[in-house]
Structure formats: C-alpha cells, structure tokens
Specification:
alpha/beta, 4 strands, 42% helix
C-alpha cells in the first residue's frame, strides 16, 4: 500500500521546484493533491502530469499565498471537494535579498508576507478542516527517528521537528 493512500494533501507552490516535486511524490504515494501557485498555468501543467500518471489532483485557480481571500478560497475548494484535509505543505514563497543597510524596507516587507504570512494564513484557513487530532505517541517519534536516520533525510540537518500531532501549535481544549 502507498503511504499516503486516500489522504488529502494541500500543497502550495506546485508550479515548479520543491512544491512541484512534493505534489508529484504525494500523488505517487496515493494522496489526493490540492495544488496551487500564483503561476497557475505551470501549476496546471503539474496537475496534468499527475493525471497522466494516474493520480488525483485539483488546482482550483491562481493562488496568492499572501492574500487571505485567495488562501481561504483555495482551502475551501479542497475541503468541499475532498471532505477535509490531512496534510498541509506551505511551500510557496519568495525572498528578496540585499544588504541589511541597503535593502529597501519594501523588499523586507514582501519577504515577510511571502515567507511568514503565507504560513499563518494557510494554517488559519486549514486548521478547521484537518483530520493531524491526537497527541504524538512513542511510535510516532520512532518513525520520525527512523526517517531522519535514513537516506531519505540525507539533506535534513539542524531541524526541529515537533512530533506531537500539532498540540504544541494549538493546545487541546478551550483556551482560558
């Protein structure tokens, strides 16, 4: 059985690069992929390739990960089509580099919107539709440790991975 069989994967940045690779891999592993990118035509090319390879993918429209309405519509299309979400990868973003003393404030603000706001907007819109609902177990940690020790994780270094079912991001129960 494929590892992601029947899971719904919401993936941004599916037009090219890591987002495209994640969409292709997720579909090959059996996920129902909901992709999106501001480069919509290229994201549709990813969709077509997944379809040719027998996968299921939805690319509802151009996705601006810095625009609340765009992100909310994307998440709503995923949840309405597939009934919920299991996986969220906020890959899309862009950075403008420059010397700290010479970089225009507008470039810095664009980078923050693209790299940070995009994650917050997606998490906020997706959270009610996620199915990540129990705390982590010792077996969950063991699986992550085995992954990190494997060749599949050969490019992972210095990462902090919270293996807790999302509980460190949002505590269970009502906040007081």
């Amino acid at each position: 059985m494929r590892r992601l069989e029947g899971k719904v994967a919401l993936l941004s940045g599916t037009a090219r690069g890591p987002g495209r690779a994640a969409a292709l891999r997720s579909a090959a592993e059996g996920a129902l992929v909901v992709g999106g990118d501001v480069l919509h035509d290229e994201a549709v090319e990813t969709q077509l390739q997944i379809g040719r390879e027998g996968g299921t993918v939805l690319t509802p429209g151009p996705l601006d990960v810095t625009g609340p309405a765009s992100v909310e519509a994307w998440v709503a299309a995923a949840a309405e089509t597939f009934g919920g979400l299991d996986i969220v990868l906020t890959n899309a973003g862009s950075m403008r580099f420059g010397s700290p003393t010479e970089q225009p404030r507008a470039d810095y603000a664009t980078t923050v919107r693209s790299e940070l706001d995009s994650v917050c907007l997606t998490a906020r819109a997706a959270w009610p539709h996620l199915t990540l609902g129990r705390p982590g177990t010792p077996q969950d940690i063991a699986r992550v440790a085995a992954f990190l020790a494997s060749e599949e994780a050969s490019s992972v270094s210095g990462a902090h991975l919270a293996v807790d079912g999302g509980w460190s991001a949002v505590p269970p129960g009502p906040l007081t």
